[in-house]
Amino acid sequence: MTPRTRTNTTDKFDDDDYPAYTMGRAAEMIGTTPAFLRALGDARLITPLRSEGGHRRYSRYQLRIAARARELVDQGTAIDTACRIVILEDQLEEALRLNEELRRRAGGPPPEDV
């Protein structure tokens, strides 16, 4: 999952996509190891930005994705399968959001809970 970019630097503190966390801090925050985060990068689930010095930097959005993958792996799911599940969950969430937005614009009824 690639980060979305913002240009206004005053939004950095509120921006879920701002790469604020180092690898060590990110791993600590989600209770895993830097190796796990590297594995998620290798699987292309998350793509951390790089600092000027070449160090990986993670956003809050990426940490939520990584934490979900960790949940699945902790439940016994293989890492590649966990990554695919997280990608599909993220795509479904985005599709539902877009669908709701289009319904609102068209003035249609809200969808029923599934």
TrEMBL record:
Domain HTH merR-type positions: 20-88
Classification via Pfam families: MerR_1
PROSITE patterns listed in its UniProt record: HTH_MERR_2
InterPro entries: DNA-bd_dom_put_sf, MerR-type_HTH_dom
Domain of life: Bacteria
Protein name: MerR family transcriptional regulator
Species lineage: Bacteria, Bacillati, Actinomycetota, Actinomycetes, Kitasatosporales
